[in-house]
């Protein structure tokens, strides 16, 4: 369905639920996939994500009172969920609404006044729990809507990315880095973002895949970030950093080169924390090398670094699991696959592969078949394009 048709359909549904009166507006925030640079963003390293053309649509209208009414086309069985803009404490029964509510709460924590409530309809065509940042997409579409509705023109897209991260950290209890929100806010069609997460310096890099495409494989193993070992990995890296700081003046693991790490790694007394830190340092260097390879039009070198990234995430960071390993190892055996790795936090979610166009059908058939045979349920595949960042739909 084309975007205009989808928007008209969602607006019609909004009017059925909430009535046709008033100014009804539409917003969109993409999902994202990280091509390389995993678990480096909270370690002060580089990442290389891109926004996708799939994402979250929001239809919204200001109310004259303090009530917020939420409805999601993805969770129809939950019906309309109500809240009060003045009382945005997190409640477990709030479910998916904790993400938009978190952004509203975060904005007010920063001193902005939200004196009126909303009627909100959401629809996402990102697989839930897939690792393509459906939660960050909801946060950013909410932030864009709030700025538009209340005229907060002084807030930049970088500000909104930081706001989304603040909401995720402080309201929803997930100690995520900045990558997801930044990529969704700042996305640019046909470009990935080479982002230094320590400084937020970034550059857009054209993604020229010639006769290849990006293929996402969703494992359909759901995982909740706040309940996963994501926060545990972060703490392990923090412990490693603290020990390194006794012998070297650094603020983050991302400041170290591979050679520097090799020389001082023995100061990390826990071998598990040492492996976690090794991944953070070497993955950062792989990301820098991968971007250089893409700029040099060497897609084969880029793919090789993707493969190495997955091995490090499997062996040193231990965030892949049987499902993601099965998808990646099956992909590596397919002709026409330039590179394949897990993407996102891990523990389920998705893989990202670069596959030659004439091999995509065979890749999906063989990889999907292997996955069904070994795991017992199906994986879903998406051939995706790189899209623009969050904004108002005109």
What does this structure look like?
- The chain is globular, with a radius of gyration of 21 Å.
- The chain has 394 residues and is of the alpha+beta class.
- The longest helix has 25 residues, at 271-295.
- Helix content is 40%, strand content 21%.
- The protein has helices at 3-18, 98-109, 134-150, 157-170, 179-186, 230-244, 258-264, 271-295, 299-315, 321-332, 360-375, and strands spanning 25-34, 46-47, 49-62, 67-72, 81-84, 118-124, 191-196, 201-206, 212-218, 337-343, 350-356, 380-384, 391-393.
- Helix 2 packs across helix 3 (134-150) and helix 2 (98-109) packs across helix 4 (157-170).
- The protein has eleven helices and 13 strands.
- Residues 98-188 form the GHMP kinase N-terminal domain.
- Keywords: ATP-binding, Carbohydrate metabolism, Cytoplasm, Galactose metabolism, Kinase, Magnesium, Metal-binding, Nucleotide-binding, Transferase.
- InterPro entries: Galactokinase, Galactokinase_bac, Galactokinase_CS, GalKase_N, GHMP_kinase_C_dom, GHMP_kinase_C_sf, GHMP_kinase_N_dom, GHMP_knse_ATP-bd_CS.
- The record marks 32 as: Transition state stabilizer.
Q: How far apart are the first and last residues' alpha carbons, in Å? A: 17 Å
Structural class: alpha+beta
**Helix proportion range:** 40-55%
* Largest beta sheet: strand ordering: 5-4-6-3-1-13
Instruction: Report the portion of residues in β strands.
Output: 15-25%
């Amino acid at each position: 369905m084309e975007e205009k048709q989808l928007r008209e359909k969602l607006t019609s549904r909004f009017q059925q639920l909430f009535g046709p009166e008033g100014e009804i507006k539409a917003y969109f925030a993409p999902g994202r996939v990280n091509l390389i640079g995993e678990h480096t963003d909270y370690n002060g390293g580089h990442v290389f994500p891109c926004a996708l053309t799939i994402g979250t649509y929001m239809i919204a209208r200001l109310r004259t009172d303090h009530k917020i009414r939420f409805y999601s086309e993805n969770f129809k069985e939950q019906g309309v969920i109500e809240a009060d803009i003045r009382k945005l404490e997190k409640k477990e029964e709030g479910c998916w609404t904790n993400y938009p509510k978190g952004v509203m709460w975060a904005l007010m924590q920063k001193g902005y006044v939200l004196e009126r409530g909303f009627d909100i309809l959401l629809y996402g065509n990102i697989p839930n729990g897939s690792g393509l940042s459906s939660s960050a997409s909801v946060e950013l579409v909410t932030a864009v809507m709030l700025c538009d509705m209340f005229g907060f023109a002084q807030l930049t897209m970088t500000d909104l990315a930081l706001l989304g991260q603040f909401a995720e950290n402080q309201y929803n209890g997930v100690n995520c880095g900045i990558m997801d929100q930044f990529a969704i806010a700042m996305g640019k069609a046909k470009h990935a973002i080479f982002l230094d997460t320590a400084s937020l310096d970034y550059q857009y890099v054209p993604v020229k895949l010639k006769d290849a495409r990006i293929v996402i494989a969703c494992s359909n193993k759901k995982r909740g970030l706040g309940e996963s070992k994501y926060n545990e990995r972060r703490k392990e890296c923090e412990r490693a950093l603290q020990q390194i700081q006794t012998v070297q003046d650094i603020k983050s693991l991302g400041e170290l080169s591979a050679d520097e790490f090799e020389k001082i790694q023995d100061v990390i007394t826990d071998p598990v924390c040492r492996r976690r830190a090794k991944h953070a340092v070497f993955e950062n260097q792989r990301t820098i090398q991968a971007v250089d390879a893409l700029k040099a039009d060497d897609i084969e070198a880029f793919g090789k670094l993707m493969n190495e990234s997955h091995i490090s995430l499997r062996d040193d960071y231990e965030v892949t699991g049987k499902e993601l390993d099965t998808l990646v190892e099956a992909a590596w055996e397919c002709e026409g696959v330039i590179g394949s790795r897990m993407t996102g936090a891990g523990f389920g979610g998705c893989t990202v592969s670069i596959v030659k166009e004439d091999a995509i059908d065979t890749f999906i058939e063989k990889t999907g078949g292997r996955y069904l045979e070994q795991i017992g349920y199906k994986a879903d595949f998406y051939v995706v394009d790189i899209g623009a960042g969050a904004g108002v739909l005109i």
